[in-house]
Amino acid sequence: MNKDDSYWLKLAYVAFAALVALAFFKAFGTLGVQLGWTDRFDWYQPATTAASLALGVGAAFLLSSNKDRHEYFLAAIGELRKVTWPSMPDTRRMTMIVCVVVGIFAIILAVFDFVWAKVLGLLIA
User: Fold this and answer.
1) Three-state DSSP class for 81?
2) pTM above 0.90, yes or no
3) What dihedral do alpha carbons 84, 90, 92, 95 form, nearest 10°?
4) Residues 6+ apart with CB under 8 A from 37
5) What is the dihedral of CA 54, 57, 62, 67, to 10 degrees?
6) CA 33, 35, 40, 42 torsion: positive or negative?
7) Which pLDDT score is estimated for 3?
8) Whether the Cβ atoms of residue 48 and residue 23 lie closer than 8 Å to each other
9) Could you tell me if 11 and 73 are in contact, meaning their C-beta atoms sit under 8 angstroms apart?
10) Contact status, residue 70 vs residue 13, Cβ threshold 8 Å
């Protein structure tokens, strides 16, 4: 584990806090519109912004406060440093293989569907 791993983990905690805060902000905004609170109360928007930020920071704090989880995340980042990513030509080649295999299976399923529809059509009629 590098010193950089701790930096990236802290950055991930900040991103997590921002995403949680955004989700709560959107949820509170939707709730306020549905219940008509945004029109009736002038304090609703600043209160939901503050509550969303507090919930986001609280969620990130709870996530980072467990020492075992923190060590697990650092170990996961260290393992990801060992990953060998494929080159661009390898990625293109493997993508083409996947597209061909998916196309073959799509044709096979289309044939089975056509045959099954004809057989059921004959049995029902």
Assistant:
1) coil
2) no
3) -80
4) 31, 44
5) -150
6) negative
7) 66
8) no
9) no
10) no
Could you read off the pLDDT tens digit of each residue along the chain, which spans 125 residues?
556 888 888 899 999 999 999 999 999 999 999 999 988 999 999 999 999 999 999 999 999 898 898 889 888 888 888 899 899 999 999 999 999 999 999 999 999 999 999 999 999 98
Closest CA to 22 of 59, 64, 52: 52
Q: Does the CA dihedral 109-113-115-119 come out positive or negative?
A: positive
Alpha-carbon distance of 24 to 2, in angstroms, equals 34
Q: Which residue has the tokens 């701790």?
A: 6
